[in-house]
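Supplementary Text 2. Reproducibility record for the structural model of the 99-residue chain.

All settings were left at their defaults, and a single model was retained for analysis rather than an ensemble. We include the record here because the model underlies the residue-level annotations in Supplementary Table 4.
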Amino acid sequence: MAREYRFFVYIHVNSNCRVMYIGMTNDLIRRIEEHRNKAVPGFTAKYNVHRLVYFEETSDVFAALAREKQLKGWRRSRKDALVTARNPGWRDLAGDFAG
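Retained model, structure tokens:
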């Protein structure tokens, strides 16, 4: 039986949505917790980027990496439009994974 893989491309923002971080992971719940707890020193810890406002899922790691790179290359206005289309209130989607 073949193992099913899951990869996520996600967007986190800080509390006032001015700072945005785009990343890719194979474990979105773990990554959300790492951002929240500032477990990994760096950009997200420094700028308090911990609100999940957007994510996509795929089973292809190469597609996830390509999508992450694509989104990082977009202008901020286009990224904002992407989030707004899926999450108009820019609410924290991390609660959707509770339980």
